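Field log, afternoon session.

UNIT: design team B
ACTIVITY: writing a sequence onto a fixed backbone
BACKBONE:
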């Protein structure tokens, strides 16, 4: 246990659980620092192939904690305070995107504000049937300030981004899947098991190829088609010359030969 996070390490899977249900898993400054440390640990440990982020209680995450106990600067009453505070969130989300391994978020209940921004920095988003998504910052005269607008627009396009950012309205799991925000929906009672199974399937893929795939997809979103195809050629060339590719091809050929004998 680290503060209000529960961290479990069972290679090849590392799990971070937001464990503050009495506060709807709102992310405190302490939690933010713990998340940054856990993501850095995951990035450095090759044995940990996939990171799963989940939560306890009715909510996945109610967003950033704002309460009278937080200092005025952290609450954003000065420009310097707002900049300092937002930079801390940006550094976490940028670090998540930079990890060369998959990060999966599993949502039950509402996923709001900074919780949704964090999830947008993950590679996969899995939803329980009762999951709901919103960026309510517009209701207090603000915008998602830690990459939420840009990441959401890049993911689902301006059409759907306007709905979430400009209205502050909540969308359910089915609508979120229709707009491309989530990848899979599971019955609420089986979300945890299904999410772990999903992660373990990912962990069984080529370590090097997963990292290259994450890089190529990320770059393809910002490049023209010719440049994107060139990235594919470069990444594939690097994979083809690697030991892991040769070993996996040899194993495949052995399995094929064994099948022909039966």
């Amino acid at each position: 246990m680290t503060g209000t996070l529960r961290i479990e390490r069972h290679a090849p899977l590392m799990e971070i659980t937001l464990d503050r249900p009495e506060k709807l898993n709102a992310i405190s400054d302490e939690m933010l620092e713990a998340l940054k440390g856990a993501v850095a640990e995951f990035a450095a440990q090759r044995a940990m192939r996939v990171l799963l982020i989940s939560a306890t209680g009715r909510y996945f995450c109610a967003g950033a904690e704002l309460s009278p106990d937080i200092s005025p600067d952290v609450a954003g009453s000065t420009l310097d305070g707002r900049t300092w505070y937002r930079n801390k969130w940006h550094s976490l989300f940028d670090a998540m995107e930079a990890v060369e391994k998959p990060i999966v978020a599993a949502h039950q209940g509402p996923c709001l504000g900074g919780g949704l921004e964090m999830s947008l920095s993950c590679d996969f988003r899995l939803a329980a049937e009762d999951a709901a998504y919103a960026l309510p910052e517009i209701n207090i005269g603000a915008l998602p300030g830690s990459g939420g607008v840009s990441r959401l627009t890049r993911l689902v396009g301006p059409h759907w981004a306007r709905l979430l950012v400009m209205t502050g309205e909540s969308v359910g799991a089915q609508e979120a899947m229709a707009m491309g925000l989530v990848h899979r929906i599971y019955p609420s009672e089986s979300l945890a098991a299904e999410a772990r199974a999903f992660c373990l399937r990912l962990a069984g893929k080529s370590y090097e190829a997963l990292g290259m795939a994450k890089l190529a997809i990320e770059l393809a979103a910002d490049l023209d088609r010719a440049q994107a195809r060139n990235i594919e050629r470069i990444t594939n060339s690097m994979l083809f010359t690697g030991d892991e590719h040769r070993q996996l091809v040899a194993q495949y050929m052995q399995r094929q030969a064994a099948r022909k004998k039966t």
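LOG NOTE: Residues 51 and 213 are 16 Å apart (CA to CA).
NEXT ACTIVITY: expression trials, pending approval
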